[in-house]
Amino acid sequence: MDLKKLTLSDKVIAGSGIVLFVAYFLPWFKIDFGGFGGGGFGNTTVTLNGGDVGFLWATLPMLIGLVLTGLVVATKLFDVKMPTLPVPMSQLYLGLGSLAALLVVLKLLIGEDPSELVDRSYGLVLAALAALGLAAGGFLKFKDGDDDVPLPPPPGAAPF
Q1: Where are the domains of the chain?
Q2: With bands split at pLDDT 50, 70 and 90, how would you rate the model's confidence at 157?
Q3: What is the DSSP letter of 48?
Q4: What is the rounded CA–CA span in Å between residue 33 and residue 88?
């Protein structure tokens, strides 16, 4: 296992995937009841982590981060050859990273509840930054043309 094989884009993707996984378990939203329902024991705060937010907004981006991290580790550190896909691997990284970033950043912007009771917490901000890191790593990989398999010519094209 040689870490020197990892490019900058690989490091960004793997690090962002790990941080997104950790952020999934941190508080994304908090509700402060300020003395209500606490039985007279002072302030009561309830937090919601990524698992409480929903599959689309939190679990799917976290799984995308784990898959992309696993792809980097398998292909770069353990020299696993991936099967030929209909799209280049760099486009796969870019597309999935962008999807994860879109979902988490939308959740950050939209919030959980239209009322003023629910506040965003640090886990959601960390998850949004990590998801943006996945998209940035995918963009770097796409920009570098870091593909394991060259694209086949389109059907009917004359070979040169």
Answers
A1: 3-26+54-113+125-144
A2: low
A3: E
A4: 50
